[in-house]
């Protein structure tokens, strides 16, 4: 990486310790290495990975309302984490919480396992499965303080994949883009049925014209009725 780009990145990530910075670097190397034989990310150029995956994942720590929710949470789950965004990046810089990373694809979990083992991230649990099934499982259902999720489904569907996992009083923070307000109006029935309530939509710019991140915060105000989530595939085929 050219020195000026390295310098700009170091400034963008200046809140990190040297150890965290080195861990992110190793994560980057493993991501690109594994990506050569499996589909983990379309973005591989170093600065773009750092900004669009790592920096974006950590943006939740920057706005006041999202940071407060995140800091108050002890037990966090990332639904549809893929190659670890945002959950694994957050776990690399925050050691005093328990993180669960869920994904439906085994091969992505294998990659995450390799990263966690090499970097000694023993506060991260990897769970293979569909959110619809995990949301009905005891030990997972209504047991998390916070669900985070990026690029998994529209809010009307995502609400059914995430709200059943959250305890009453907990939160879902979804990493959305400019379609957030449209998705929110489409999701009102789902929120009402699942015990969720729209609490905030916070927009932040990614540096260098890389687009806008809109965090949608949903609070869990009442228990989710037992029939939700419905069986795997139904939320997507027939959104509430
Ligand atoms: C487009 S990728 C996004 C990955 C990552 N969150 C990111 O932002 O780069 C969507 C991921 O969600 C997972 N996924 C989709 N539906 C799911 C479900 N119902 N339960 C668990 N994982 C799911 C997919 O396997 C995939 O890894």
- Poorly predicted regions: none
Architecture (CATH level 2) name = 3-Layer(aba) Sandwich
The count of helical stretches stands at 11
CATH topology: Rossmann fold
Task: Find the structural class using helix and strand composition.
Answer: alpha/beta
Shape: globular
Ions, cofactors and other bound molecules: S-adenosylmethionine
Count all strands and give the number.
7
Please characterize this protein's 3D structure.
With 240 residues, this protein is an alpha/beta fold. It has one domain: Rossmann fold. Helices cover 42% and strands 22% of the residues. It is built from eleven helices and seven strands. The protein has helices at 3-12, 18-35, 46-58, 64-72, 87-93, 106-119, 131-134, 155-162, 180-186, 188-194, 234-237; strands spanning 75-79, 98-103, 124-128, 144-150, 166-176, 196-205, 212-220. Helix 1 packs parallel to helix 3 (46-58), helix 2 runs antiparallel to helix 6 (106-119) and helix 8 (155-162) packs parallel to helix 10. It is globular, with a radius of gyration of 17 Å. The protein starts with a helix and ends with a helix. Bound molecules: S-adenosylmethionine. S-adenosylmethionine binds at residues 80-82, 85, 102-105, 108, 130-132, 150-152, 161. The site of S-adenosylmethionine has 16 residues, from strand 2 and helix 7. One of its GO terms (molecular function) is rRNA (guanine-N7-)-methyltransferase activity. InterPro entries: rRNA_ssu_MeTfrase_G, SAM-dependent_MTases_sf.
Note the main attributes of this structure.
single chain; 240 residues; alpha/beta; Rossmann fold; seven-stranded mixed β-sheet; 7 strands; 42% helix; rRNA_ssu_MeTfrase_G; transferase; SAM-dependent_MTases_sf; EC 2.1.1.-; methyltransferase
